[in-house]
Amino acid sequence: MVKKVLGGAVIGLVAVVIVLVSAMSGLVQTWELKTYDARMAIAVRSSTMLKTNGGPQDVVLFYVDEPSLQYFKNMNVSWPWPRELYPMALDFCRRGGARAVVFDLFYSEPSVYGVQDDETFASGVKQGPPSYFVLFASGNEADEDPRLSEVLAKGSVKIEGDIPYFVRDVKSFESLPIPQLIGAAAGFGDAEADPDVDGIYRRITLLELYGDRLIPAVSLKVAADDLRSKVSGLKSDLYFGDWKVPLDSDGKMLIRYYGPADTFPNYPLAEVMQSSLELQEGKPPSLDPSVVKDKIVVIGVAAPGLYDLKPMPLSRVYPGPEIHATVIQNLLSREAMVPTTPLVQIIIIVAIAFIAAAGLAVIKSSWGMGLLIGGMGVAYTGGAVALFTQNVWVPVVQPLMALALSSFGMVAKNYLTEGRKKRQIRRAFGQYLSPHVVAEISKDPDRVKLGGQEQMLTLFFSDIADFTSISERMTPTKLVTDLNEYLTHVTRIILENDGTLDKYIGDAVMAFWGAPLSIADHEAKAILASLEIQNKLTDFPRFVTRIGIHTGPVVVGNIGSEQRFNYTAIGDTVNLASRLEGLNKKFGTRILISETAYNRAQEIVYAREVGRVRVKGRAEPIGVYEPLGKKGEVAREKIASCEMFADGLVTFRNGNFTEACAKFEKMKDDPAAAYYRKLCVEHLASPPRDFDGVVSFETK
Questions:
Q1: Sheet strand arrangement including 213-216
Q2: Rounded distance, CA 169 to CA 192, Å?
């Protein structure tokens, strides 16, 4: 026992090494991120159902959306709008008692409407709530803009303690605001956000270093000013007030999303501006300013054509301003996703790998092994999801990989060391039985015994017409190549239509439907498969295939001798299906089905009756039909021809051979009609005794 456990420990160690190497190479990162997104969806759904999610309580959004663009377009005002319009939105926020306004819009160039447009905008900024504007940090070197010093004076933060090691350097800033706004703004912050390797936005960089200045993300700047919270740090930690901000190994905060797009209250910016104008005119506003009372307002674009839509875990189309709103809410609510440290991740991986390997070393039964592996996988995944709902992110892919690898290693070890006797038995029986039967013996020997059971099946026989003559005209190599390709297509169609291939008999194929698995409409499936085979055989013009189909009771199972047996079907139904295949030669048809099969499939398949026949070795006559296609898909002309044939057939059965011959004569291109014309002529020359309308065949 100790030896087995030690062997399991070695396998567990190998599994851990493979997982850690894969993790360091980034091979599983994308998979892990996908599980993150799935868990985020579950967490949001569960918190909504349980009403434990406080949700976005402090932030609202004003959007430049399609209705807003259309509203001003109708007034002949195109985008970008005159900046003198924005003070109306700021006046609305002031009247409603907003705490701050964040413009997620860049105003880096003078207005195309002139200097006065910028001055009016700046004046509105000064009169409204504290307003913040965004910067765009860059890693590229650039000449310092004269405006930058004043921007940094309002846009940087002082940090108490050490600057954390993970704060990255930036080289320059692009799209600095126009001078008028620099003087009017309450502050500035970086709007840059980097997606993960799969393009999804899950993290935010809160601090960057420019020279000796710490530049916050605009969300951090707004939240810090709003709460008058200090930003402090140690070499590896960042604090927002007294809250230690949970950061990943790259120093980024994992965003705790509250829902998909439009989770935050949001309003069209045009409606806000219109309401402000109505208030100034003393009219009741269409939107009450109280919607912003004690709120931070984020103004940005959400119209698809303005290119600020980003993918996030819960939605692949998410407005960029709502990301800033979410981070602001995270900071104000002191909540974000808490990642596990690398050390904790390694401990989890090692523990799972070693528990699985040790458990499988002592468990012998297959069900016990399955229970252990499945139970550990389900328990760990469920725990990871439960922790995620509490804002704790533990990895899923790497621990499950460790579980899978250690389990696979132990199962392989057991197979190599303890399955030797079983493999010897299999090799011995494999000399005499097919691999399929050997597999059945190893699973349950009682199932594999001579005999079978009676079932209602649909039997299929196909044969190539004049195959002997064809083979005489072809070289053996060419014949075998073409025949193999032909049989491949026939077999594929049978299997794709849920049939069971029984055997090949030279160029003939035997198959059946309804066993070993019972299937509904097996008669129709067999008939439709035969039609598909005939359509496919246009690729093999030299192979004219005849098919016979009959439904009836058969004995199906492992049938043969004690030395060798196969899964097959026997009985009168099998023989009749074979006879029907041969009758195609008489009637000039390609497919003939019995009336039993047709009656069960007539709601799905359209067919014409070819006649009632009595075959050699069978006293009872049976109706035979020629299927022409799926019901509703057969051409009108073909249906009309079938009706003419049916009329001639009725006349023939009534014994009026002269009139029947005349009717069949009108169907020049119908081989079955030609057969009946010949039969009518024979009966006129030598009238049959006790004629009952049945066509008898004394040969196979």
A1: 168-169, 207-210, 213-216
A2: 13
The residue type at 452: G
- 435-443 and 420-430 helices, crossing angle to 10°: 140
Q: Residue 429: what pLDDT?
A: 37
Question: What's the distance, CA 125 to chain centroid?
Answer: 49
pLDDT band at 316 (very low <50, low <70, confident <90, very high): confident
For residue 435, give Cα distances in angstroms to 213, 288, 442, 451, 560: 74, 78, 11, 19, 16
**Residue type, position 489, single letter:** H
pLDDT over 80 at 451, yes or no: no
Closest CA to 465 of 565, 564, 590, 376: 590
End-to-end alpha carbon distance in the chain: 69
Whole-angstrom distance, CA of residue 671 vs CA of residue 677: 10
* Angle, helix 342-362 to helix 397-418, in steps of 10 degrees: 20
Number of H helices, E strands in the chain: 23, 29
User: Residues of 514-540 as b/e, b for ≥16 C-beta within 10 angstroms?
Assistant: bbeeeeebbbbbbbbbbbbbbeebeeb
| Average pLDDT of the residues of the chain | 86
Q: Where are the alpha helices (DSSP H) in 363-501?
A: 366-389, 397-418, 420-430, 435-443, 467-472, 476-496
Q: Is the pLDDT of residue 452 over 80?
A: no
Torsion of CA 385, 389, 393, 397, to 10 degrees: 20
564 in Cβ contact with 578 (< 8 Å)? no
Residue 408: C-alpha distances to residues 10, 23, 51, 108, 400 (Å): 13, 19, 42, 60, 12
Burial of 432 (0-12, 13-18, 19+ CB in 10 A): exposed
Whole-angstrom distance, CA of residue 298 vs CA of residue 64 = 11
Instruction: Kindly report, residue by residue over 247-301, the tens digit of the pLDDT.
Output: 998 899 999 999 998 899 999 999 999 999 999 999 999 999 999 999 999 999 9
Quick check: 427 pLDDT over 60?
no
Contact 86, 122 (CB under 8 A): no
Q: What is the mean pLDDT of residues 7-25?
A: 78
pTM metric for this prediction = 0.59
The larger pLDDT score, comparing residue 77 to residue 366, is at 77
The two tokens of residue 419 are 């399955």
Q: Which candidate, 152, 135, 133, places its Cα nearest to that of 298?
A: 133
In the chain, the amino acid numbered 472 is: E
More reliable by pLDDT, 6 or 320: 320
Residue 356 is predicted with a pLDDT of: 85
Cross-strand partners of 138? 172
The pLDDT score that the predictor gives to residue 87 is: 96
Average pLDDT over residues 469-497: 88
Instruction: Compute the residue count for the chain.
Output: 700
CA nearest neighbour of 335 among 103, 69, 54, 109: 54
